[in-house]
Amino acid sequence: MRRETVTVFLVCTVFAVIYGFAARHLASMPRETVAAELLVTLPRFAQVTMAAGDRHLAANLAGFRVLVASTERMSKEDYAVQARLQQDIAWLNPAHEDNYYIAASILPWSGEVDASQYVLKRAVGARPFDWYPLFLYGFGLYHFKHDPAEGARWLLVGAERATVPQDQWVLQNIAAKWIEKGYETRMAANLVESMASSAPSGSFKKYLHLRAVRLGDLARLRDLADTYARLKGRKLSRLDDLVSAGLLESLPRDPLGLGYDLDPEGRPILRSIPAGSAQ
After folding, report:
1. Selected residue with higher pLDDT from 271 and 262
2. Alpha carbon of 7 to those of 4, 11, 17, 25, 204: distances in Å?
């Protein structure tokens, strides 16, 4: 009996020594910076099961994990986990307001653009009373996907959904500017003029009409610049050359007061707004 006790004691001692060396070795090794609350994403069916079959409760539980996560030390891998969590929340409860706010505020700026757009598009369909997801989704298309024309289209849908006239005007105004960047100039002029035609009477309707006139004049200047290049065999160096060549009686006056310029290729462009000012 004593021999068996000694044997057990020796075996336990050996394992204790091995454990001590292993623990010391592991403690000296570098560790991942993944936040503890974002280590794992469970399958969606498992999340619903753990929430007693309540999809909204499952979404809230996942949302709590996102809310308590500290972004100060998060790595690219952490943001990828957060993106999956927020997509899960959008699937479980697409109308979750905090989820789409957080997704738009954090994910695209951390390289998770597609995840953010997924969350926002789900919110667009689930929140017909809310124009803000449309604005954020359109901004994602404009800024991150570099598609101003498509971004403007979503903003115009948001303008239809907005109930406050000031919100409608802001969305239409931004959309008009994005349309100028995303469409062929003459088509952009027609689209903005169409927006002006459907806008209620007042100063904003007039403003949109002036933007359409401005774009129409720019389209005409670009056509004449192409004609000048064919006739003279060289690109336009000054807008006044169109008058000197007899192609124009006088240069059009920008109805917004900014004027027109030439880019380095001799192509007429809208003059830039001075830094620090608003149009």
Report:
1. 262
2. 5, 6, 15, 27, 92
Return the amino acid letter for 82.
Answer: Q
Q: Reduced to 3 states, what is the DSSP secondary structure of residue 33?
A: coil
What does DSSP say about strands 260-262 and 268-270: parallel, antiparallel, or unpaired? antiparallel
pLDDT in tens, 78-98: 889 899 999 999 999 999 999
**Considering only CA atoms, which of 99, 77, 76, 95 is closest in space to residue 87?**
99
CA atoms lying within 13 Å on the CB side of residue 105:
10
Q: Which of 125, 40, 109 is nearest to 76 (CA)?
A: 109
d(CA 177, CA 148): 9
Q: Which phi and psi angles does 260 have, rounded to 5°?
A: -125, 155
pTM, 2 dp? 0.73
Position 4 scores a pLDDT of: 59
Q: What is the pLDDT of residue 91?
A: 96
The answer to whether 143 and 170 are in contact (CB under 8 A) is: no
**Would you say 80 and 127 are in contact if contact means Cβ atoms under 8 Å apart?**
no
Q: Are 81 and 41 in contact (CB under 8 A)?
A: yes
CA distances from 13 to 42, 85, 153, 211 (A): 40, 45, 73, 85
State in Å, rounded, how far the first CA of the chain is from the last one: 95
Residue with tokens 């597609």: 114
Name the amino acid, one letter, at 225. Answer: A
How far, in whole angstroms, is CA 242 from its chain's centroid?
A: 40
For the cut 80, the answer to whether the pLDDT of residue 16 exceeds it is: no
Task: Write the pLDDT tens digit of every residue in 169-198.
Answer: 999 999 999 998 888 999 999 989 988 888
